[in-house]
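[Q] Does anyone have a clean structure-token version of this?
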Amino acid sequence: MIKHSSLLLCFIFATVSYAQKSSENVFETTRDSIKKRQFIKHLGNGYLPTKYFNFDLRYLIKYNQYEGIRSGLGGITNDQFSEKYRITGYSVYGFRDHTFKYSIGGGFRVAEKTNTWVNFSYTDDLQETGSTKFLTDGRFFQFFEPRLLNIDLFHKLVTKAINIEHEFNPKLLTEAQFAVSNINPTYDYGYVLDNNIVNSFHLSTANVSLQWNPFSKFEVSENKLKETKKGYPQFTLQYTKSFKDVFKSDFNFSKLDFRTVYKIGSKNNGLSEITLVSGITNGNTPLTHLYHAYPNNINKETVMQRFSVAGLNSFETMYFNEFFSDKFTTVQLKHYIKPFNISEHYKPQVVLITRYALGDIKQPELHQNITFGSLKKGYTESGFEINKLLFGFGLSFTYRYGGYHLPELSDNIAFKFTFNVSL
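[A] Here you go.
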């Protein structure tokens, strides 16, 4: 009896030990799996995580027509460093203009419940002339940003800024900023201001931006509220005011910008996407702060000489610096046809595209040493993409027609390749 009891105890002990080791192995596997998912998520957001600092992959290498190759390092401290304070910055070098650019900043959280942060920054860099950035735009990262390759019109920007981030609720985000900037165009440009021609200038601006995603869904994960489903439509509104004579500011103007995005369906079963962007300025507004409608066509003679990379939301047949407006609206319609299920890993997809832009400018004569048109006739282009043909690469064909159709047929055609990779 004692012998059988001993054997039974040994069996129970062995079983418990095995179960304990198995549970430990499952726990380790689960923990490693979570770490792997978190690591891939960081990479998908453009970061290479380390213990206290996440390196920003956006600054590793890029290319544009002014700087040539642009390369450097940047990043931001993570929650392991501090959940209440953060430090951010980057430094890059342009191999064609032989100039370093950099930014340094930091922030501190003042309210955890509303995720309210106060941030400070000093930036010495370039910015594309005619571009508009919404303060509340979430982090957007691509391994390859195609439109950057073709941009040639930049202005130098030295900016000191303070901004406040605040969440009224998870579906309504706000950000406000006050900035003082010195601006110097890299091209020959002058603005007629008070009967004088200004070639470089100072700006003191205040921005307020709102992002409203009323149909998105959220849930608490790891003690943090995270978006589990992107709902549409989404709305973004931003107001900018430049104050003359405040910190030696030269211009007095205002801007109001709006964007909405609506998606129906899914990319795997057929998706329709509508994007509307609109903006208007009032007052003395230099070219740097007008609208260019996101062109992406190089000014070269033949179709093949203009062969480059198609952007995501840009006008592929519109030439760079062809149009500038002080008020404009663009509408883009995309329909993703259900992918061709050729094999498990080879699924090309056709996307049908139509884009329309309408705009105008009141006093183009105030802008010296540069020639451009308006968009008051309405600009239209349509075409298609065949994506993911080989290693994420595809092809794009777009045709320009309507009010700004050009006499030479080939000048209305844009033939490019696409690149789509996501984690």
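[Q] Thanks! Anything notable?
[A] Residues 1-16, 26-31 have pLDDT under 50 and may be disordered.
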